[in-house]
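Board notes (copied after class):
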Amino acid sequence: MRTVTVVGASLAGLYAARALRGQGFDGRLVVVGAEPHRPYDRPPLSKDFLTGKADEEQLALCDEEESAELDAEWLLGMPAQGLDPQGRAVLLADGRTLTTDGVVIATGAGPRMLPGPAYAGVHVLRTLGNARALRTELANGPRQIVVIGGGFIGAETASSCAALGHDVTVIEAAPLPLVPQLGADMAAFCAGLHQRGGVRLICGTGVAALHAGRTVTGSGGSAHDRAVTGVELTDGRLLAADLVIVGIGAHPQTRWLSGSSLALDAIDGGVICDDGCVTALPQVVAVGDVAKVGGIRAEHWTSATEQPAVAVRNLLAGRTTETLRTVPYFWSDQYGARIQFAGHRQDGDTVEIAEGSLAEGSFLARYERAGHTVAVLAVDRPRPFLRARRALRDPATDHPELSDPRSIRGPSGVHPRPSGHACDS
């Protein structure tokens, strides 16, 4: 294998490039990126970068010294437009054909958009360019902001906007946000964080339409766009809005793979891989948000950092020699609280408070199934969470904090349930 092309220059792509060099690949390494930037850290975009606590230099994941050590060709601002597996080539947007012996697909995911016309003042938050545009608008004085979507990106962005002094409302179509990730009990607690942060949360209703009124001058000084003025809900309410932030999920960036014969998941569109990130096409692996590995597509920082080493090892071997043995993990910072979760939660799991309490807003909870701990959640309990997460990763190790229920339950010996939901508060 003389040439390997990594398609995607974000976190997963960078880790794939590092793994290639770290595992002894000394051939030609090409990194193709749709954005004009070197790899940068996305999680701070909705937090410290948006609030002005971090600048672009602090987001960088790769400095000049490491770039030199990687000895890679960076083709940035150059989206891939096709994959020709028979010709072993990646087709670029400028018409070039990049011949390659191996491919790492790391194109990530893009934001889902609302249907209808595009209005000025409507933002998504996925890229550095998105964050720049939103931060500029937020600096223009107090605004009425509607965030559509109560997931982690929506909640973090709402938290940042509130911290900057804006009037913020979050719209969530489900009865509670984050139920698929956390279950109803813990989701209700997280919903209450919005009220704590002075943000109104409206649940159980969707968005019928965006309203627009006045015109604004476009970036060229001549074009004019209609600016958003309100959000109409499916229950008939109309919310005034100077800015709208859409956080309704993401979809894998796989359009460029159309016609490649690469297998994509029929439901979410992710690149189908085995447990070693290997696709059905020879010498093609996939990692990060775009990859459905062993039936699971996880849009988390840890997946993007843990999958590449295994994928590259299998790519260089020409077959699956190693599979992933990881426990899903994610975190979120909202309204001054650090939320951490690890494991595999399913409907029907029971939740128990191991330490702290919901009332004090700091706790460690565990999810149990058939007498075994399958996931843990912590709010502002980093050290206990670390121990609990290690126990999930290595269940054979003696971890009394997980194996003895008497040592981890709250004073009552049972898990408390929230008294109500924080919606429409």
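Comment from the instructor: The first helix runs from residue 11 to 22. The mean pLDDT is 90.
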